[in-house]
Amino acid sequence: MLFLHSLTKTFITPLPTSRKLFPLFTITTFHLSPMAAAASSSPSPTRVSPFSTASPTHVPPKRVGTHNGSFHCDEALGCFMIRLTDKFFGAHITRTRDSEVLEGLDAVLDVGGVYDPSRDRYDHHQKGFGEVFGNGFTTKLSSAGLVYKHFGMEIIAKELKLDLGHPDVFMLFISVYRNFMEAIDAIDNGISRYDTDKPPRYVNNTSLSSRVGRLNLDWTDPDQSAEKENEAFEKAMNLAGGEFLDNVRSLARSWLPARSIVMECLSARKNIDPNGEIMVLNRFCPWKLHLFELEEEMKSDSPVKYVLYQALSVQCGFPLFRFLGSVESGFSEDFLSTTIIEWQDDRSKQWRVQAVAVSPDSFESRKPLPEQWRGLRDDDLSQVSGIPGGVFVHMSGFIGGNVTYEGAVAMAKAALKL
């Protein structure tokens, strides 16, 4: 069977039996095969299946357009996400700036100068555009943000295999935007993270948007063909989409269950300190983002200064050969390579006192541990602090440790007064 693009008079051949996502390209069109994409069922850095197992398989693919030429993270991610939906599952992707071609497509992203969700038009470049995500966010949306705003809850519900109205779906919908999507919107719209004209102290080209941008064809590459360009866009979709799904899954697997733990401990904090400035985690979990969000939601009158938790234990094991470094120890090589050293460290008997940062991404603490404790360890720390069981205090004062829970509480209470 052949697919004919009437305006370019170019034939697109059927997808071969290999795992490659894209067949032959034209300057305006390429076609992603649902069967080929579904064959790669687990995400990886180079190949991500853009389909959920809950997606329908009987709906004929629609056509989604975006611009050709240099690409950015927002349209690469937007194309990936929209193909996860029931409405556009397995859609053909058309890359063109031809307005007549775009007009006949089922959805258009990042090109065309129109934002109209009733017609599935999701551009953000036109004069007067100011759409934001809402829910307290004020960053102007990119094409990826527009797709996420209108289809994000459906994608998350399918990924979690939950009903659209389940409260966890909306909670993750907000969290994924805060922790992943908003940065892509801001970068694409040229919005700085900081309200300052000062130049940055260092260059950071490791963001997802930067890495996607580097997938564009290099100007020194002798092959600047449309096929080569579309192959690069395929990689960009897989990179951006893979990290999006990883973020959704990580938040669902780790972030969401931790929220209930932090909420419980935050509610009980005045049992430790009457002013509520010390929180004890009854079970270690990722707590930082939850603490900031829950303090705001609960209208906390006294922000937490220190969080106490039991240090995680670590069990290690490796061949004795690696421990001794060579076979010159007198043991046989066979013995050295097969004998495993195993131990469990004693950190599980210790407690940590961590100063809460002024914001989730700041290195500055609300109230660092006292300066006179910093850099001290063991008996020196215990003597200066007057609290038995001292283990250490970091040079910056953001974290310290004590052998016992009682000692950790005493350190936190003493630090509040110093």
Q: Could you explain how this protein is built, in words?
A:
α2 (73-82) links the parallel β4 (63-66) and β5 (92-95). The longest helix is centred in the middle third of the chain and has 42 residues, at 226-267. The model is unreliable at 1-53, 314-333 and 335-347 (pLDDT under 50). The strands form 5 sheets. Strands 3-5-4-6-8-7 form a 6-stranded mixed beta sheet. It contains 12 helices and 17 strands. It has 418 residues and is an alpha/beta fold.
How large a portion of the residues is in β-strands, by DSSP E? Answer: 5-15%
Helix content: 25-40%
Shape by Cα distribution: elongated
Major sheet: size, sense and barrel closure?
Answer: 6 strands, mixed
What is the CA-atom radius of gyration, in angstroms? 27 Å
How many DSSP E strands?
Answer: 17
The secondary structure category is alpha/beta
Note poorly predicted spans.
1-53, 314-333, 335-347
Count of runs of 4 or more consecutive helical residues: 12
Q: What are the secondary-structure elements, in order, as H or E?
A: EEEHEHEHEEEEEHHHHEHEEHHEEHEEH
Biggest β-sheet: strands ordered side by side in the sheet: 3-5-4-6-8-7
Give the N-to-C terminal Cα separation: 78 Å
Mean pLDDT: 82
